[in-house]
Amino acid sequence: MTQQPTPPRSLDLALRILARAPLPVLHAAGTTIGAALAHLPNRPQRVAEINLRLCFPAQDAHQRRRLLRRTLQETCKTALELAPVFKRPPEQVLRWVRQVHGQEHFDQALGEERGVLLLAPHIGCWELLNLWVAARQPLTALYRPPRQPALEPILLAGRSRNGARLLPAGPQGVRGVLRALGRREVVGILPDQEPDGSEPFAPFFGVPAKTMTLAGRIAQRSGAVPLLAFAERLPGGRGFDLHFFPAEEAVADPDPAVAAAAVNRGVEQCVRRVPAQYQWTYKRFNTQPDGTSPYPKKRRRRA
């Protein structure tokens, strides 16, 4: 049996300390730190700047600078609010949910008794969405193990506190989610990460993006109802609104390229509602069809 790596005690302690802070304080700190990052050269700023330029070409320089600043502020809020979401009792965290928009879509999907495939992009506080769903229905979620193995126990403990079952993405994980959908449960997938392997390219804000076919394959094989969802962060630390939308039927198309394009259109629909709260600091377009990348290469450290 493989021993689970132990998370750094200093990190766990920092999360516990941050978890005691009120949400408005954490969001105010994120606003301040993000504003500073917008004026200092750093990698997240550069990546977000490139992404925004690619995805919003009609905006002028002033509009993009303003969106970049807000993006970095929201990114910092995401990082800081992770502590209470992972460490406070779930019932306390769920009190931050103010409204649920489109809950009728979620309830209707459950009523069809085909299982629900929840596509949750990296918008706002996606970890809160996980807690809310798991408090109401059996939830199985696929995840990508972090690059630092010591962080995995924190991730798993934080996401599974409300009874959610976490499975690493891979053949065994796919079999697990198909069994969960066969039991008419809810399965959650983060659909907007660049996959490995020879996956197709599909437009995302008009830019070619290597896109996972996993969501489409699961939807096709299971017959589950596909939904899009995200947790919108409200200003002033007032909490969060949840949003649920029906996904296109083409998500389950047998043509992988058609299904991938449908997934990206759904993600884009969500992002356009709260563009500053999307994870623009992620290298979404790192692999292009011609083998190039729009992002600067990492500089190698001198020996």
Write the layout of secondary structure elements.
Blueprint: H1 9-19, H2 23-39, H3 43-55, H4 61-87, H5 90-93, E1 97-101, H6 103-111, E2 116-119, H7 126-134, E3 139-143, H8 152-159, E4 165-168, H9 171-182, E5 186-189, E6 201-204, E7 207-210, H10 214-222, E8 225-233, E9 240-246, H11 256-273
Parallel strand pairs: 1-9, 2-5, 2-8, 3-4, 3-5
Antiparallel strand pairs: 6-7, 8-9
Helix pairs in contact: 1-4, 2-4, 3-4, 9-10
Quick take:
This protein has 303 residues and is an alpha/beta fold.
Tags for this model:
Lipid A biosynthesis acyltransferase, globular, cell membrane, 11 helices, 9 strands, 303 residues, membrane, acyltransferase activity, 7-stranded mixed sheet, acyltransferase, two-stranded antiparallel sheet, 15% strand, alpha/beta
Q: Sheet with the most strands?
A: 7 strands, mixed
Given the structure, what is the number of helices? Answer: 11
Unreliable stretches (pLDDT < 50, length at least 5) are none
Mean pLDDT: 93
Indicate the structural class.
Answer: alpha/beta
Subcellular location: Cell inner membrane
GO molecular function: acyltransferase activity
Main location: membrane
GO biological process, one term: glycolipid biosynthetic process
Describe this structure in words.
With 303 residues, this protein is of the alpha/beta class. The protein has helices at residues 9-19, 23-39, 43-55, 61-87, 90-93, 103-111, 126-134, 152-159, 171-182, 214-222, 256-273; strands at 97-101, 116-119, 139-143, 165-168, 186-189, 201-204, 207-210, 225-233, 240-246. The protein has a seven-stranded mixed sheet, with helices on both faces. It has a two-stranded antiparallel ribbon with strand order 6-7. Strand 8 and strand 9 form a beta hairpin. Helix 1 packs across helix 4 (61-87), helix 2 runs antiparallel to helix 4 and helix 3 (43-55) packs across helix 4. The two termini are 37 Å apart. The mean pLDDT is 93. Its main location: membrane. Keywords: Acyltransferase, Cell inner membrane, Cell membrane, Membrane, Transferase.
